Amino acid sequence: MVLLQEGRIHGKLGKQVLELVFQEGKSPAEILRERNWEQITDPAVIGPLVEKILAKNPHVVETIRRGDMKPWGFLVGQIMKETGGRADPRVVQTILKERLQVSFLYLLSFGGAISAKETRMEWWYLEAVEPFRRSLRRILPGKKGSDRGTTG
Q: In whole angstroms, what is the distance from residue 13 CA to residue 34 CA?
């Protein structure tokens, strides 16, 4: 548990280490050292591996840069494969985002269409959040004069 909290291993590896602790009667630190399983968290180590995978997959890089994020998991998987599953997935994701100069916007929709024009900073609020807030006002009772519900 401490190894997970310290970021020295990730969850999948933690499960394997725990199984081996019971099978072999060794400490988690011994198992990690013997098998060279400690997680790679150093961006200086992971960065060149990311570059190598990107260079091997220019078509995937181009697909992502055009806005299709489906092959994102493929790239992450290739980097994890290159490190034997030891790279910290959070560091891998961060470096990939930097190298590909992409960012993610997660939207939550409750059945309505969401459209946007990037003309002002608040486009996402006006066209996605405000209709949702209006819907909530209709169904949630509120105090008089409050931001929630009606004022009557």
A: 14
Q: pLDDT at residue 44 above 90?
A: yes
* pLDDT value of residue 127: 53
Which residue, among 66, 75, 57, 77, has the nearest Cα to 102 in the 3D structure?
66
Rounded (5°) CA angle 54-57-62: 85
Tell me the domains of the chain and their CATH numbers: 2-35 (no CATH), 43-100 (1.10.10.410), 111-152 (no CATH)
Q: Which of 1, 9, 80, 91 is nearest to 44 (CA)?
A: 91
> How far, in Å, CA of 74 to CA of 71, rounded?
5
Tell me the pTM: 0.58
Two tokens, residue 25: 């009667």
